[in-house]
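USER:
I wish I could look at a protein chain and see how it folds. I am handing you a single protein, as its sequence and its fold in token form. As I understand it, each token names a local backbone shape. I hope you can help me see how the letters and the tokens relate. The protein I mean follows directly.
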Amino acid sequence: IMNFKINTFLLEKHQTKDTGDGHTNGSLIPVWRDWDNLLKIHPKMVYFTTINQGEVKGPHLHVTRHYYFLCIRGKVVFIVRDPSGKYHEIESSDENPILVEVPKNFASSHINLSNETSMILALANPAWHPDDKDEHNVTFDDYDWNKWTTNISKK
């Protein structure tokens, strides 16, 4: 039995260069490479989801699925409740690319902190299937949502 915990990874960011004159034309952020062994549970599915301004997703509990989340546009705070009931707040944004590991049996919620629609890249194992009933809605009744009232339109 593996002892899972919440992990965060500050991802490396590389400037990309124009092939003509060499000016910086953007950046590249590796999220997962099979050779660097950063992620112990390798993803079986990769997708992105959006969260509108002022909105909250979740909280959800997955009992079989292991997740990694990364905000790739905007700014999001991931609220993760570990099995002991402790809450962890982890911010991730396109400017601060923090990859958040959420093991199975850890409930999580996502709050959009930006003034635009935020986009989250999700890496999951096992892959989602339409017949899969692994997403369980839960409540964080003892969590202080009020600290985010300037960011949340309704809760």
